[in-house]
Specification:
Layout (H helix, E strand, L loop, with lengths): L1 H38 L5 E2 L2 H5 L9 E8 L5 E8 L2 E11 L4 E10 L14 E9 L12 E2 L5 E3 L4 H8 L2 E9 L18 H27 L3
Parallel strand pairs: 1-2, 3-8, 5-9
Antiparallel strand pairs: 2-4, 2-6, 3-4, 4-5, 6-9, 7-8
């Protein structure tokens, strides 16, 4: 009897877990559908600073126009980035929106070894691109910050807390993927999404099916006389 109850309890826990995973996949499908809609959106949006301060997923990959000024002296590199199956770096330059806020701009991919030369931006300007929400990679515990011989910062992933403390300006939770027609960029072929919404929906069906199977097995275990 105890063994039957223990097995029943395990199956109930598994069924609950499968249901949670199913709804998580449906939520991911909704997010990917939104990204695809943004990818086909050609009208550039003007996004306020207040909106940029929020980690709003609805802004992910939204095409925008942003006014500010590059600070090329603070340009740094994002390591271990792939472009056309080649490993390299992304060149990241802060874009000063005002005295207190910075938006990071991803200017594209370069092949190492790479020596950065400032393009010569000096005036305020409007640039175009797509916003991308900065997310932590759970498999990278630290940013592995280092500085090369030319005093260029190199990071494994974005660390807003570190950059905010280093520059004494608030780094916004988005990075702007610079449009291909913008000057001063490098290799750019931004991939909007990898897994389609329909595939996420298919995964959701699989998780819900496993939850149903767990409930059916639990029912037969309770009905058994042993």
């Amino acid at each position: 009897m105890k063994n039957k109850f223990f097995i029943f309890l395990i199956l109930m826990i598994l069924a609950s877990l499968f249901v949670v995973l199913g709804f998580w996949q449906l939520n991911r499908a909704k997010e990917k559908q939104q990204l695809l809609q943004h990818s086909h959106h050609s009208i550039r949006q003007n996004v306020s600073l207040e909106e940029l301060k929020k980690e709003n997923k609805k802004l992910d990959y939204l095409p925008v126009e942003i006014r500010g000024k590059y600070d090329e002296d603070l340009t740094f590199f994002l390591e271990n980035q792939f472009y056309h199956h080649q490993l390299g770096l992304h060149v990241i330059t802060p874009f000063i929106l005002n005295e207190k806020h910075i938006l990071l701009v991803d200017r594209g991919w370069v092949s190492p070894p790479f020596v950065f030369s400032p393009y010569g931006f000096s005036e305020h300007k409007i640039i175009q691109g797509r916003l991308k929400l900065i997310k932590k990679n759970p498999f990278i515990r630290e940013s592995f910050e280092k500085i090369d011989s030319r005093k260029r910062l190199s990071m494994m992933q974005y660390d807003r807390v570190y950059l905010t403390a280093r520059w004494q300006k608030s780094v916004l939770p988005f990075v702007l993927l610079l449009d291909c027609q913008e000057v001063g960029g490098y290799g750019r072929d931004w991939v909007i999404t990898v897994i389609s919404p329909s595939r996420h929906q298919g995964y959701a069906v699989q998780w819900f099916s496993l939850a149903l199977l767990s409930l059916i097995i639990s029912f037969f275990i309770l009905r058994s006389k042993k």
